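Problem: given the chain below (188 residues), write out its structure.
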Amino acid sequence: MSSTSQHEVTQLLVAWGNGDQAALDKLMPLVHEELHRIAHHYMRQENPDHTLQTTALVNEAYLRLVGQRQAHWHNRTQFFAIAAQMMRRILVDHARGQIRAKRGGGVRAVALDESIVMAPERAGDLVALDDALKTLATIDSRKIQIVELRYFGGLTVEETAEVLGVAPVTVMRDWSLAKAWLLRELER
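Solution.
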């Protein structure tokens, strides 16, 4: 995205946050490709037979973003960080639903081959990661923000530092510590 369009995205976000619905109509074509890139990043980490498609993930995140009535958008980086966080939550909710269905939480019985598609093995991994992230959030909220922005949002160190208002070296240090902590938690 060129610096001109980045600036335009920021202006449209601020206008939309101030209630200008026409700004939303102009904004979405500009951010759609980046939202799709973020969703594709998430979906690459899922099983190939995942029942949720990239476009569906983008559409669900879009609906949730549009539903943000009280949002005060500061810039495009903040917007994409929140979009990435929403996509992660959508995938975690989807995974939790698959686990419930696998454990008999569904109403109907399914054939074995259908249940394989409905309950990919990575659903448990995603839920475990989400649980570890929730624990990390109670210990150090900045580290969880860095994980969400860097890993899930695909932001650079510099963009993450800008969103959080810290130095890039702080982002790198916290990123390293968060990865080590999460690895230890997930190995338990």
